[in-house]
Amino acid sequence: MTAELVRGQNHPLPVARLDIRVSAGKPVLAGATLSDDRGRVRGTEWVAHPGSPRLPGIEVSGQAAADHRLSVDLEALPEAVHRVTILLALPTGTGGPASFASLAPPFTAVAGRDGAAIVSYRITGLVAESAVLALELYRRQGAWKVRAVGQGYAGGLADLLGDQGLPHAPEFADAIQDAVVGAAARSTAAAPARTGPSGATGTRGDTAGRRPVDYTHPRRQRTADPAPPPVVPGARTPELSLGEQSPGERARPVAGDATGRTMDERLYNQVRGMFEDLARTAAAYRSAVDFADSRLEREIDRALSDPRSRTGSAGAEARRQAQEKRDLLTAQAAEVLDRDLDQLTAESQVVEPALAPAFARWDSAVWHGYQVPDEAPTALRVGDLHLPLRPGLRIPLLVRLPLERGIWVDSGHTGPAGEADSAASRGRAMDTAVAHAVRLLAVHPPGDFTVQVIDPAGSAGGALAPLTASGVLDEPPATGAQGVTSVLARLVQRVDLTQMAVRGGVTDSLPPDLDTAEQLLIVNDFPHGFDDRALTQLRYLADEGPSVGVHLLMVADREDAGQYGPVLDPLWRSLLRITPVPDDHLADPWVGHAWTFEPSLPPVGSDVLTRVLKQVAGARRA
Question: What is the spatial distance between Cα 255 and Cα 349, in angstroms, rounded to a whole number?
Fold first, then answer.
């Protein structure tokens, strides 16, 4: 399976002989630089480019083209080489585009010589840049990895090569561009004219008439952004009247702007796309800052390595210039970040009011017009996610229905500030569980979803009041060890019988008194009231229950179950852990973020749960 990288992400390379493919839509030149363990390119002999396409262990294209295939043999590289950087640049003097803004985002892919794909990376966010560091193959502790870089240079190939530490970079960049122009002239002269079906002539590689490629997110399918207008130094951007859209402005967001057969599914895919966009945007900013910091360190090390400039005004000037470059890069990254976050914020402000009850916040106006649905939704909101970069931008955390795993509300977690009152913490956790139970009842048709409660000590009476007073519970909460045993035995029997019927293809032969509705079991104060047998049954329900419609919603403090040691580790791992207070416990291994989770609770003093349950109970009786 190909790993789709985002900017700054790396991936191990399982083989040494690689093919790197580049697709840009318009002719670009592709090259590579070799650098040592300090990141320095020792000279022009360590640069593979169209004028000198072959170096030990690497071969690039001999001319500019829309598509490239670069060959790399990591084992054949000189021993001193620790890094191979793949670069792209727009040719000058050929009448082509002046920046990547008018091109589709360049696409790169790394594969083995046998064709087995390893990684791919689409370079997005390029505007005024005319050269870009695309990929970096680097050696660390004897193993090679690939990193998605995506660092662009508005100053073109000269700035890129100069940033690589190459002396006389502008002159060398001009020589490379001259080689590209010469190769293009020879190619044009050698290629015979081709006559198409309509009599039009063209040369090999002509892209006229081709259908444009849609590079938008596969689940978002929104109209591609128009290319921004060229930037004229010193010119002011004309002011716009209210409601007018500039040529470079992104399309205004629309609720349901995603693929799907129903509005429910389109909104789900749109929210998921917003989450992925926020993750990519934050990862790109973090990568850009890291790149700027590493470049600052390299330039300072380079200045200090020369005894003549180590002290005095020359050294101070070198450090000042390096710091200015770093500040400029981070400022540009922050500008792009703010632009993307503003777009996502605008989209969130449009999407949030359009969400149906299954996806909506408890303070949404949609609950004032709530009606019991005729069919179950595709997903359920369990809370919100946000990042420190913009805490006010909250993305709904949606989980697919039917639930594929149970939920654990951690009653022992008190948040970053701590909580002195343990009872208050447990009460807030139970309130969170009840809010989720009410939402599950509200978004399912009458009779399709039932709730059972185990409250061994009877300590959750206040939190359970909305459920018990409305009459939506078929039985009162089970208390004591006997109540625990009775409820677990009944649900285990239901799981066993349903599994056997499904495997045998005889679901119509289930006992008539067996409740086949989806079941939610709320367990409070675990493991109080549980003996070893009950503990085994609970683990069985957590593992086997979701496949046949039995789901767990546990309110528990893991420390209370510490006496069982690692016996309960599989149980905790099988459940989705959420907290009753905001907490950054949700790690994202894809891009390395720690998302802050905020539970979905009704506003203080609101009677929304009571009003919704009243309608649910009435529909169930009817």
Answer: 9
Report the sign of the C-alpha dihedral through residues 334, 335, 336, 338, in that order.
positive
User: Which of 128, 422, 381, 96 lies closest to 267 in space, CA to CA?
Assistant: 381
Q: Which H or E element spans position 319?
A: helix 312-351
Residue 602 structure tokens: 């009704």
What is d(CA 276, CA 281) in angstroms, rounded to the nearest whole number?
Answer: 8
Q: Which two tokens stand for residue 246?
A: 């500039």
Cβ atoms of 442 and 567 within 8 Å: the answer is no
At 356, is the secondary structure helix, strand, or coil?
coil
Structure-token match 């005319």, residue found: 130
Structure tokens at 530: 């549980």
Rounded to 5 degrees, φ, ψ at 33 are: -115, 145
Q: Which residue has the higher pLDDT, 606 or 192?
A: 606
Is residue 527 reached through a cis peptide bond, with omega within 30 degrees of 0 on the bond before it?
yes
Does the N-terminal peptide bond of residue 402 adopt cis geometry, omega within 30 degrees of 0? yes
Closest to 110 (Cα-Cα) out of 129, 136, 88, 82: 136
**Is the alpha carbon torsion for 488, 490, 492, 494 positive or negative?**
negative
| Structure tokens, 34 | 């070799």
Please state the separation of Cα 413 from the chain's center in Å: 26
Which residue(s) pair with 396 in the sheet? 384
pLDDT tens per residue, range 30-86: 999 999 887 788 889 999 999 899 999 999 988 888 899 999 999 999 999 999 999
User: How are beta strands 395-400 and 65-73 bridged, if at all?
Assistant: unpaired
Measured at the CA of 267, the angle between CA 604 and CA 348, to 5 degrees, comes to: 55
3-class DSSP assignment, residue 35:
strand
Does the structure show a pLDDT above 80 at 192?
no
Phi and psi dihedrals of 518, rounded to 5? Answer: -60, 135
Structure tokens at 331: 């400022």
| Residue 114 one-letter amino acid | D
* Lookup: tokens for 475: 């039985």
**Residue 268 pLDDT more than 90?**
yes
Work out the end-to-end distance of the chain between its first and last CA atoms, rounded to an integer number of angstroms: 51
The answer to whether residue 236 scores a pLDDT higher than 80 is no
- H-type helices in 4-57, by residue range? none
Question: Beta strands 117-122 and 3-4: pairing type?
Answer: parallel
Residue 184's pLDDT is what?
A: 61
Q: What are residue 121's DSSP bridge partners? A: 108
Is the CB of residue 22 less than 8 Å from the CB of residue 89? Answer: no
Q: Among residues 450, 516, 457, 449, which one has the least CA distance to residue 483?
A: 457
- Band (pLDDT 50/70/90 cuts) for residue 200 is very low
For residue 89, what are its two tokens? 């640049």
136 DSSP β-pair partners: 85, 147
